[in-house]
Amino acid sequence: MRIGNTLRQGNSRRLVLGKPSQRQLEFWSEESSTDGLTLYDRSGNNNHGSWVKSTCLKLNGTNNKLQNTTKLSYFDDTRNTWTIQFAVKLNNITTNQYIFSNRNGNIGFGIFCGSSGRWSVIMRNTLTTDDLIAYTQEQFTANQWSIITISYDGTKVASGLKFYFDDVLMTTSSSSNTLTADSVATSWTKSTFGAMQTNTATWLNFLNGNIGYIRACEGVHTPAEFATQPKNLIDIEFNSGHGSNVFSRIDENHLTLSGTVMTSTNWADTYNLSHSNLLNGFDKWVLTSDNSQILRVNYGQNGVPIRTTGSTITDYTWVSTHPRFTVGSNTAEARLYLPTAGVEIDFSNYANTSQLFARNLVTNYDRILFYSLRPISWGWADGIDVTYNILTNTYSTTYNVALKKNAVVDRTYQLGSTRAYTTLQQIHTHLVANPTNAIEIQVDDEQFYQPYINFNMATNINMICASGRAVFTNDKLSYLTPTWTSLGGGTYSTTSFTDPVIVPTRLFDASVLDSNGNHLLMLKQTSIVDCQNTLNSYYWDLATLTLYVHTRNNRAIDTDIKIYEYQFQLNFRGNGTNIYMENIETRGGNNSVYILSQNTNFAAKGCWFNYASLGNGLGYSSDGECFSQDCQANWNSFDGFNYHDYAVRSCAVEIDCIGSNNGWDNDLESHNGTTIHEDGRAICIGCTYENNLRNIHNVNTSIAIYFSCMANTSRGALNEFDSFNVCAGDGIDETTIYLFGGNFKGGAFADILVRENSYIYRKNLDLNGYNIYGNVDDTDYDIYPPEGYQLAKTQKYCKII
Question: Does domain 57-265 have CATH number 3.90.550.10?
Fold first, then answer.
């Protein structure tokens, strides 16, 4: 999660340090150093900093290699685009030396420096007849640090590879350029750094030298562009390790060193790039007079992990420019107390067993960067790990849910009126007859009539509309042409719907849209006379199977009148699978989209889940992770977003989502904009829930955190059960809600309601003018929530990482 911006002065970044009693202690900026050795304090307090070279990993060239637990298979697909960068110093260039390899014998992917001193990339499917070997014409020399950047555009030819040496583009040559395969994957299940394996299971081509870092991301980028990209494929700093482990910065896929035990001899304090390269993230500036004030904490130096003494970490370091505070103890609890503002706090490597508290942030300086949500994957664990005193009321995130897309698919279907497939049913039928592990459905920007379909199979699915928004609807008038009889005055009747089971009871008018771009709900009446007397209404006479419709402007019935069936729309039951949707709108159904199976992860970006006739917009009942970003769930008869457990805890994330006008069927119990049940966990950032009967209502032992969310204008009956903006609990179990900033006014009965045994805590939320029912702690905590409150009850809280 990102909050605010870094402080800037002129064109350079600056860092302002302080304590409550001292407005400014130090002021360092890039130009403060004139000799590359001392960073001079420009505040006048003479708190100068000294340059400390970072450590790096040293490999012996004989038997040292590193392997992770899961192969980085993204590089095996020759159609994928990527950019990789590494800092390396080779002690000699006499043999091929691999820095990264997915190879197993002659087959696979690898990056190495050849015996001629040329950096090379190999992608080989069969020996010499189906492979690509590209390299730099320029030769590199030993015993000097080099930053190598390589990009690949997925074209399977040498010209698609670009090599950069210290930001300068090199000339690319090739010794083989015959690659046609879409994949060079092998049976080898691990990626290797510093060596490669032969097909006889022996190791060779060991790297002899030092590695500073390896980073990689999707897409083709120059070095300048790469510096600003999230490193979502590889992000390993080889100054971050302990024992035989080198820690990944983006996931738990750490590296294990073999050949020798990792001790202090493996760590070299020689990562000495020039002063112009301070932004590489390794050179550290330390305050000579008081190094207890922290800007950056690495995992540890010389193979020693960060340890704690009481509530204080012992290994403190300063970072140079672009100050960032990194939390990453993977072996011990780390409680870190930050005395500064104007810094970055990075939780991307936050350990499962740690907690973080920030106190005494200086109110004079209100800029702080705060990172959350891992770039590729994240986990959930007991123990809420983030509490802090933030100086602004606005919270947002730069996390991109598109990173949850299945990176590798076995088969692609194209869906559209001019495509091979024109309905999802056709794709489903083909998939049942020809099962596979992962598919991508590329959907054109069209409207498709979609009755109930159930993807009940163990297949990972991407469903993506690359531009615009694809609409799947079960609107009866999109495929039926009823005979309408005019009753005069804009009222019409039809007896064309003869099946009382599937006859719709929910109608909308698409000729007028609400502020979110959604159709207008037509009002259900209880008699023919009421329908005739009420614009924008309808009446269903079950005895005669007759539907009466009175348009909002007395016009004739047209295609803007939408009659949605209440069968399920899109249903996924793939145990252990990952479902990703992008720019897809579903209309109608019981649940507009429903996920019901164990260990199934669902992610959606830019999707709309609307007009469910007898259920929820998005219904998620699983024990996996459910991510929604820039999504809407509107005008559903039950909840907009609904989360239930499946045997064990479910986890949900909503980012910049909208849930509005849900729970509109007054024949049924009141429903919500969003709700999480059982022992689930939810994090919602920048979301809006409005005009629902109840906007936010969480029950059972669930825990949810809302950052800068808005919930207003509840429409339920005026009682404590049917109309409020935020409610914790059902009066039986212990439900916990945290409100960080936001606005929750305008509830018909109450703005904030806390039932017996439940808790609501707040931060940066002024309760003046709020209508509160129940017990809301009215303290705006400096450390939020404080130790000793609900946070101290471990084994029950979700984690933000």
Answer: no
pTM above 0.90, yes or no: no
Tokens representing 487 are 């009753």
Total Cβ atoms within 10 A of residue 46: 9
* Amino acid at the residue 177: N
> Of 277, 124, 288, which is closest to residue 212 (Cα–Cα)?
277
Q: Residue 382 in 3-state DSSP? A: coil
Q: Taking a C-beta distance cutoff of 8 angstroms, is the pair 718, 685 a contact?
A: no
pLDDT in tens, 536-585: 999 988 888 899 999 999 999 998 998 887 665 789 988 789 999 999 99
Q: How far is CA 464 from the centre of its chain?
A: 17
Using an 8 Å Cβ cutoff, are 438 and 415 in contact?
no
CA distance 143 to 405: 41
The domains of the chain are located at: 57-265, 476-564
Measure the CA angle with vertex 211, ends 206 and 214; round to 5°.
Answer: 105
One-letter amino acid identity for 670? Answer: S
Beta bridge partners of 618: 593, 641
Mapping DSSP to helix (H, G, I), strand (E, B) and coil, where does residue 515 land?
A: coil
- Phi first, then psi, for residue 349 (nearest 5°) are -115, 25
Q: Which helix (H) or strand (E) holds 518?
A: none
How far apart (Å, rounded) are the C-alpha atoms in residues 343 and 77? 39
Which amino acid is located at 648 in the chain? V
15 alpha-carbon distance from chain centroid: 29
Phi, psi of 247 (to 5 degrees): -95, 135
* Residue 2: strand, helix, or coil: strand
Residue labelled with tokens 């490193």 = 231
> First vs last Cα of the chain: how many Å apart?
9
Q: Which residues contact 72 (CB under 8 A, 6 or more apart)?
A: 102, 191, 233, 234, 253
d(C-alpha 442, C-alpha 427), whole Å: 11
